[in-house]
Amino acid sequence: MKHSLEVNGIRKRDSIWSRRRPMLLLGLALGLVIVPLAQALITLLVSVLAPAVGVGLFRRAVEHWTQHGGPAALITQVVLTAVILTGIATAAAVASGFGLCLPSVKRARRLGDYRILRRLDSGGVGDVFLAQHARMCRPAAIKVLRASEASDPSGLARFEREIQLASDLTHPNTIEILDYGRERENTFFYAMEYLAGMNIQNLVDRFGPLASERCIHILMQVCGSLSEAHARRIVHRDVKPGNIFLTDRGGMYDFVKVLDFGMSKKMGSRADPTLTQPGIVFGTPSYIAPESVLKPESVDVRADIYGLGAAAYFMLTGRPPFASTSVIEVLADHIRSVPTPPSRVAELAIAPELERIVLRCLEKNPDDRFRDAGELRAALRRISLDEPWTGEKAAEWWTIHVGREDLEAFGRVGSRKRIRAA
Known about the structure:
Phosphorylase Kinase, domain 1; 48% helix; disordered C terminus
């Protein structure tokens, strides 16, 4: 986004560099073009209007320059003045851009200790921005609760619950919450680690279905994140391709981060009337478990197993298990229809053991699925592959399809460069 942003009445400015370039160009234009032209115009006007203004003034000017070097001295003076003014204008532009005068920094909006740089995404209850810690210069993704949600007790409660539950999880494959705060005008926000890469939804949409070995590699990491949550009796309730993000950590590519615990639920906790209302279904229709539609209050960790199975189906085939155009029809399919085995609709060969695991995850009866993410992970680990997906293969894939330099530039704070595929 090239222009300033409005969120909850707070104006967010772009990065300093986005304002530095026009200021530099303006300084150079003033020095190299406008100033000499202005001086030439003034000289012309004086020579033309001299008779009207007074011949004496013009004669005194001619006598002055005749005594001090003649026309050559006049030209030298004009050029020297232009160079000096050019330097002053350019220095002012550079100083302003780099923060010596700091007009951009002063105008840039902050949330707590974070300076907003640009918008990254928009979600159901808030917007996500790229930001930088004012003192540590550490990048972060800032999620800001929309004003309409902040004024709604249930929206604010869901926002705070997401922070509380996610910040209690420490698995390396779970998004890390860094900070939480409230600014004036009831602006609620939290800071989380900034990730460079793309989610599974974008990956498959742009590059097609994944090979079985890569799918297993990703599923194993998702199970690691969910295993910790399930051990603490936390149900994510919105496991889907868009919430499975691939990034790199210290040169480890295809490193998974599970996002968005905004719909999560703590099993056994007392129901909060501001969070649980009759007729409300939590989840994304294409990846929602049948019991989440029929009896949302009875949902447990096995609903996440169903969602992960549906996400795996998408990874392998490029489409969700049920692809009706109507949301009502999709929900009805989850309740009563048996999904087509992924091997029948996939472009790539699928490991038979993996297909059986995916179909077991998609069983209608929760008792017929894996008990939790830990049990699912153990089943995935038992799959025998001729050529497992490795870190070297992941690095090669990202280098070929995205480019290592592009990925690094995409992750650099304030950079305008985008991954070509993202």
